[in-house]
Amino acid sequence: MDMHSVVVGTSGTTADDVIAVARGAARVEVSEAALEAVSASRQVIDDLAAKPEPVYGVSTGFGALAVRHISPELRAQLQRNIVRSHAAGMGARVEREVVRALMFLRLKTLASGRTGVRPVVVGTMAALLNAGITPVVHEYGSLGCSGDLAPLSHCALTLMGEGEAEGPDGVVRQAGELLAEHGIEPVELREKEGLALLNGTDGMLGMLIMACADLARLFTVADVTAALSLEALLGTDRVLAPELHAIRPHPGQAASAANMLRVLEGSGLTGHHQDDAPRVQDAYSIRCAPQVAGAGRDTLAHARLVADRELASAVDNPVVLPDGRVESNGNFHGAPVAYVLDFLAIAAADLASIAERRTDRLLDKNRSHGLPPFLAGDPGVDSGLMIAQYTQAALVSEMKRLAVPASVDSIPSSAMQEDHVSMGWSAARKLRTAVDNLARVLAVELVAATRGVELREGLEPAPASRAVLAAVRRAGVEGPGGDRYLAPDLAAADAFVRSGELIDAVESVTGRLD
Fold first, then answer.
1. pTM of the entire structure?
2. 56 in active site
3. Are the CB atoms for 159 and 121 separated by under 8 Å?
4. Strands across the sheet with 134-135, in order?
5. What whole-number distance in Å separates Cα of residue 135 and Cα of residue 429?
6. What pLDDT digit, counting tens, does each position of 361-382 carry?
7. Which position among 56, 140, 339, 390 bears the catalytic label?
């Protein structure tokens, strides 16, 4: 396997594999061992299909219609019909990376030898990913139970050569045309295969994995922006001493404090809290930054544990067990994933909230310890960053609404057969918005904090802070001065935060941060 390939097989799939396929150009290969396991489980399904006893998903209808026995001549139609009828999504298109993650994770489960599909289904799913064909999936249609049904159905529809999909050129076309263009034969589904393509937590899991990767970066960004704000406000770094965090041994808190301390090493701005206007202690938004960001880090660690467990799972119903039994189960219920998706939205909202409070303190002349009002060039004539903080506050307010958990909701479906659902897909969708907003909030703090540091004339910032100042100015974010069209500065700061350049600038001085 080269560095641009991901092998699906018996060795397990990692979060990095998912991201490489979803966001990168990694090719997907299916191991021979996996294909052998798939063939063996298919033989179990073929044997059951030949017997007169009804087996759910093989020779029966679905959901509340499982009471009907389906005769052999109607079973191919049954599998086609479940895909067509369940491809009932509505709303805006879901992002390409989400659909690719969803498809790859479903492929991972199909290749586990627990779903009973034929090798041709596995091979065709891999071929779609490698051809860069992305089914059109819509925002609404999953309740996060019985799997992400509508999203997965739209993917299965493409496998059949039906519906719409986006080609590698980004143009949406008929799926049948795209498959033909890439030499991919549409799959004619047989017993259980339609059901197996739909019955997983793959959409919510894919979004969880990508959110975890994004939040890991943003927690480090938040440590940097908090350190810059502490400098700009002439705060003390004594509260970051490791011995203080050792007596409350939350690992995330210790990591955040250590990051901030390394950013501030050699600063000539820290420790002035006892000068002209003596302070016994800095405000909570400064002093408690490691406690809040650290709690988020620990929440992230728990979410990653859940994601890893789900990655190790084969989610389908019914499932083919190693001893050859085919058993119904409830493993498709998305509760474990939904809970941590909601938990991360809470952590992201609180981190954004404390960052906004630091920004507001930087802009308020009554609390900024000598900085000009709103960090303006000529206050009164200039408004400075006044409205940047409005934008930041609007983002934080939305994040608080997005932190309301989806997983406590449930709405019955399928004639009360599916009477409790997880709403995990909804939790994932709102978390994606929250993560985007968090990056924007931290970008605004970065703009304010760097401007505040530069306005402390005669005091030398830390070497790491100087590296950030140089990098952010190269990225197109201007420093102090008169008012100007501000949106481009904020957009440049946002791109700077998301790209990883902020962390790169700091680590060029400090070495790798946690």
1. 0.95
2. yes
3. yes
4. 134-135, 164-166, 172-174
5. 18
6. 999 999 999 999 999 999 999 9
7. 56
